[in-house]
Amino acid sequence: MEESRVVLVTGGSKGIGRVIAERFRDAGHRVAATYRSGGVPDGVLGLQCDITDQAQVDAAFEQVESELGPVEVLVANAGVTKDTLILRMSDEDWDQVIDTNLTGTFRVVRRAARPMTRARFGRIIMISSVVGFIGSPGQLNYAASKSGLVGMARSLTRELGSRNVTANVIAPGFIETDMTAVLPEETIKGYKARIPSGRLGSSDDVAAAALFLAGDGAGYISGAVLPVDGGLGMGH
Ligand code: NDP
């Protein structure tokens, strides 16, 4: 039996983050999850928090600390897309995606780092994307935000590694959630043809990787990129 940890998942209202929160809860951990709209699964402490606002991030951490204890496992999952081709991409399209996916992750990681360092234990898991490695037309902002997480995880590994804090990146491929439901049928067909597994992934596929990286057996894995993409990005 793994030790029970205090886990915080950002973006736990739906999609991948919601399933990650459920699987950690089912494994006996004490789980909190942030949401902006909607809610979080039963048995999970819900925290209303927009990660583009440091004050809201700080308040969410304070609530977890007072109700469950210091965060030991952070899953930085919240993310958005604002797709359009470069010639049409506005500053606002760029800023919104970077501010949420990259700077938002920085905000939560920075807040988590001190208590983890103090406790001499921490697991930081960032949800990136295969798109950050192989690129995607119409997703310059998104791809830049997601590949940026690798530099962040590797720098964290160098800063905090000696304190038993690990930082890893999960790079999902195409996972069936609201985010991919908006893609045209033709695009999905095209992706399926390129995925060696021949199918889109599920949120459970990603949650299994997060549980592994948070687990007692993964303490010597840090600065790694774990693809969960059916082979789509092989070689990155
Ligand atoms: P969804 O759109 O289904 O869920 C996104 C989650 O992020 C929601 O809970 C949403 O909260 C939250 N969120 C968005 N912006 C903010 C914000 N500013 N502050 C706090 N929370 C926010 O997406 P997925 O589940 O598909 O994606 C989850 C992560 O996985 C993302 O980082 C995404 O980039 C990544 N990913 C997804 C892939 C896919 O194929 N689906 C592939 C590769 C990576 P709310 O709805 O309450 O606003």
From TrEMBL:
Top-rank lineage group of the source organism: Bacteria
Keyword Oxidoreductase in record: yes
Keywords, sorted A to Z: Oxidoreductase
Keyword Oxidoreductase tagged: yes
Gene3D superfamilies xref list: NAD(P)-binding Rossmann-like Domain
Pfam families, sorted: adh_short_C2 (PF13561)
SUPFAM superfamilies with a match to the protein in the record: NAD(P)-binding Rossmann-fold domains (SSF51735)
GO MF entries: oxidoreductase activity, acting on the CH-OH group of donors, NAD or NADP as acceptor
InterPro entries noted in UniProt: KR_dom, NAD(P)-bd_dom_sf, SDR_fam
Ketoreductase domain span: 5-178
CDD domains registered for this protein in UniProt: BKR_SDR_c (cd05333)
Family classification: Belongs to the short-chain dehydrogenases/reductases (SDR) family.
NCBIfam families linked: PRK12826.1-2
Protein name, per record: Beta-ketoacyl-ACP reductase
